[in-house]
Prior knowledge:
Blueprint: E1 10-21, E2 37-46, E3 51-59, E4 77-81, H1 88-96, E5 100-104, E6 112-116, H2 132-136, E7 143-153, E8 161-173, E9 178-184, H3 193-201, H4 204-216, H5 227-258, H6 268-273, H7 276-285, H8 287-297, H9 305-313, H10 323-329
Parallel strand pairs: 1-4, 4-5
Antiparallel strand pairs: 1-2, 2-3, 5-9, 6-7, 7-8, 8-9
Amino acid sequence: MNGRLERFRDVLIADATIVSLYHDAADVYAATGDNQSELKLHLTESLSTGLPTRFRTTDGKTHERSQLPTGEWVAGALILLDLGFYDFWLFDRIDKNDGWFVSRVKDDANFEIAEELRTWRGNSIPLEGESLQAVLDDLQRQEIDVRITLSFERKRGSGASATRTFRLVGLRNEKTEEYHLYLTNLGKDDYRAPDIAQLYRARWEVELLFKELKSRFGLDEINTTDAYIIEALIIMSAISLMMSRVIVDELRSLEARQRGDEAAADADSSASRLPRRRCSLAVERHAHLIQLYLMVELGYELPDLDKLLLWASQNPNPHRERLRSQVESGEFAFDRH
Length: 337
């Protein structure tokens, strides 16, 4: 981790994606719509490795927030959260476990502003003591940087409320004249408002990971209704992704040795020369060769090519009359059904 990310043990991005299944699988994988079947894949991606650190499947109706536990695993890490994880209790738990977070803010959020963290010259609207929605439409400043107060249940179901203060930052979009708002527990001295928005941009990495799983490793090609086979195919997709990352690391080390720079395997130059997703495309395209080389390396004999092709080319239904035979000598009849 370098630059803005240097202080973090890792950057973790939580999200979920939907995998459409055959309708007959709806008994196990219910969907939000009628006559549909959906599997929802919940994962947390490590930005440093490009791999999931948490990986779980549910039906399509399960909410993302219910699949993200809290605990000591967040210590020293920055957690990037979209609105599917918008939960004050979660923010509190991340902070209590010595982690950091950046989350988008709901459009209708109406916090009480406790303190302004940046002052503006001229006749700027004072924000301290105001509610967010009361002043938001009247603001013209480029940035919002305030401390807000929020209330939530400290213990789920207890009915006892707790109050915390967190930092709210916003950047004004000049085209739409609207603010992109973020909640965070990162300090102003270390990260200005534009830095917070830039950190949140890294959340797009998990969308790219989902795209890679679907386009490269078969996550969007589940043609079965058997729940056990569905789970097996999901696991195979994840294992393929992990193997791809291992190969990427080996390729970066190889490139570094070829350039005579042992330290370059971990440098930005090596990563830019061999980006992970381009490498995964190369692995997909040459998977058959990788399998053959692995067989030889592990001491297996390569299959006899003639026998392999003869076996693969056989007609699985040799007794079924071919179309040409029907045309040459068969009787013509209308299908009465």
